[in-house]
Amino acid sequence: MKEEQQPDGQEQALVEAVARFAIGQLAPHAAAWDESETFPLPQLRQAGALGLCGLFVSEDHGGLGIGRSLGVRLFEALAEGCTSFAAFLSIHNMATAMVARFGGAVVRQQHLPELTSGAKLASYCLTEPEAGSDAAALRTCAARRDDGYVLDGAKAFISGAGDTQWLVVMARTAPVGSKGISAFLVPADHPGVSYGRRERKLGWRSQATRMVLFQEVFVPEDHRLGAEGQGFAMALQALDGGRLNIAACSVGTARAALREAISYVKTRRQFGQSISQFQAVQFRLADMATELHAARALLDQAARHYDAGHRATRAFCAMAKRFCTDVAFAVADGALELHGGYGVLGDYPAERHLRDLRLHRLLEGTNDIMRLITARQLLDDHDMEGLL
Amino acid sequence: MSDMKIMVGVKRVIDYNVRVQVKSDGSGVVTDGVKMSINPFDEIALEEALRLKEAGKAAEVIAVSVGPSQAQEQLRTALAMGADRGILVTTAEQPQPLAVAKIFAALYAKEQPGLVILGKQAIDDDAGQVPQMLAGLLDVAQATNASKVELEGESARVTREIDTGIEVIEIRLPAVLSVDLRLNEPRYVKLPDIMKAKKKPIETIDAQALGVERLTFLRVIKTSTPPARQGGHKVGSVEELVQELKQRGFV
Ligand SMILES: Cc1cc2nc3c(=O)[nH]c(=O)nc-3n(C[C@H](O)[C@H](O)[C@H](O)COP(=O)(O)OP(=O)(O)OC[C@H]3O[C@@H](n4cnc5c(N)ncnc54)[C@H](O)[C@@H]3O)c2cc1C
Questions:
Q1: N or C: which end of chain A has fewer CB within 10 A?
Q2: A58: Cβ–Cβ under 8 A, 6 or more apart, which residues?
Q3: Are A274 and A329 found together in one domain?
């Protein structure tokens, strides 16, 4: 797909550099990493060396300091190489940006350089067994003690857990409400931190998903991110960016799927001709491209609103996440369909794209929760104008 | 020779992934709206120069592009990879190899590099002539199709892949090298370096200012697409294959 509007030369160069890395270092291994559930540490380190581990951290703090409009282009390019890899980098960047933005001077000085360089990786720990969509119902508690806090509780579905060195943990410093939640930076191997088994799952198989248990884990005060009670607001703000990234990973994956479908239909012959000659096949391809571009346009708009601090940013990010992940899944499904029976075989990437994209529709908030966020804004007399 | 300068050629060509399309009037190939990149062999030349600099064997790497003003983009990429500065020599029309060699010779006189490293050919016109012409014009040593380069004091030991095998030659500097595919694997560009490249200098000079007036020496009569491949058919056995080959006079 060609750009309608050419981004400036430098942005184009950045996107091309990432695309080159993704095609050269990720795409050739994506199937094997998925199959063998291998966490691609060498390539993550390489990504760090290229500058991909501190995308949204300012240059003063060792990051790249780019905005979301460019960020989504980079995640698209990464996902064209390997969806699961790109998605993990998104989570690492989300957690790292929280440390950069809300960490105190000491934490930033000591730990940020390792995170932005990718020497150390981070997980984002919000979800709990009893608090998924209703994340504010989380119960992990951070009790005040002397010069710090003691964490007790359990987190579920934590991406990268067991392979990452830092955990950004949302926990309760007051018994009720979303204003009773604070955020902490916790070393992943701290005494009292333990891990559940690696979940067996449909997609994102190259990265671990595990429960993380906290038993009397002491966290010094200076490892709290932001003020007490601000944790939930910070976590949701981080998710706005995370949702844009997941949307971008979906668009990139779907583009790869479409590309592969196009090349497949040109070589596959049935009824004495190339199946690309059938109008039904052509129309399917046309619809896939059309919908993918529409999704990408919405994603662009949401990212621009994020960068500009638009007041309906949260709803735009939710709309983009909902629409892009649904469209991308439909495109991947169409691509699989065009492969016929071969589409479900592990010999072609079509089925992996479908599996990975299925996850995108429910994580970082299910798509129904995205609808809820959007509708809430539409029905709010003060806020609806921002969305109309 | 650690204060040595290395001059590297960086040609703007159609990206190697693009399926090239011939213009309908046969006057050339379509370049409008087509992705352009650094000639892959030039990227290898640049990588080698950067490695020599990183090993302390050179002090400065100068990237040179001859072509349209848009070749700035390729120079920026070269700067992002690590070149210290760029020189863009603009020309009124697409220059042919001898003109490019003369332009490099003029820059050589100005910059006095110890090494000029060029790709063994550009993937657009596949002429493969500039390095040899340049060495001739300068009357300096040349080593072409290099697959390994080792600098030792005032000389270079260069491994070349040739039809009969591997040849190792020693040449005195200053010299012109042309590089082959297997010399090295160019690095991935770091994103912060792309941002920093903005601040590195690119000097623009017109070819005429270097005393190179004539840019073309050959007239291209026609550009056309190679004939489409004819579909083949499957043979059932080795005997059948041999028979078919005989029938067509191939064996
Ligand atoms: C592979 C994977 C990786 C993940 N990584 C992380 C991570 O790194 N960090 C992290 O914190 N979390 C992570 N998650 C958790 C993820 O964000 C949650 O799974 C998600 O938010 C949904 O929560 P839940 O699974 O508890 O589902 P539930 O909340 O139980 O939802 C079940 C169903 O009910 C619906 N539903 C719930 N409430 C409503 C409502 N009010 N209105 C309408 N429908 C509703 C949902 O849409 C859904 O269909 C990950 C999840 C997966 C699968």
A1: C
A2: A65, A100
A3: yes
ipTM score of complex? 0.90
Whether A297 and A239 share a structural domain: yes
In tens digits, chain A (388 residues) has pLDDT values of 333 344 578 999 999 999 999 999 999 999 999 999 999 999 999 999 999 999 999 999 999 999 999 999 999 999 999 999 999 999 999 999 999 999 999 999 999 999 999 999 999 999 999 999 999 999 999 999 989 999 999 999 999 999 999 999 999 999 999 999 999 999 999 999 999 999 999 999 999 999 999 999 999 999 999 999 999 999 999 999 999 999 999 999 999 999 999 999 999 999 999 999 999 999 999 999 999 999 999 999 999 999 999 999 999 999 999 999 999 999 999 999 999 999 999 999 999 999 999 999 999 999 999 999 999 999 987 777 778 8
Q: Does A14 touch chain B (CB under 8 A)?
A: yes
A364 is catalytic: yes
Task: At A302, give phi and psi (nearest 5°).
Answer: -60, -40
Catalytic option among A114, A128, A351, A364: A364
- A183 alpha carbon, distance to own chain's centre: 19
Report which protein residue has its CA nearest ligand 1's atom 25.
A132
The residue ranges of every structural domain in chain B are 5-218
Of the candidates B33, B73, B194, the beta carbon closest to that of A17 is on B194
Chain-chain contact of A50 with B190 (C-beta, under 8 angstroms): yes
Pick from B223, B197, B213: nearest CA to B85? B197
**Last residue of some domain: A229, A251, A277?**
A229
Q: Which helix (H) or strand (E) holds B53?
A: helix B40-54
Contacts of B12 in chain A (CB under 8 A): none
Give the domain range for residue A52: 2-116
Number of domains in chain A: 3
How far apart CA A247 and CA A71 sit, in angstroms, is 11
The model's pTM is 0.92
CATH architecture for segment(s) B5-218: 3-Layer(aba) Sandwich (3.40)
Q: Could you tell me if A273 and A353 lie in one domain?
A: yes
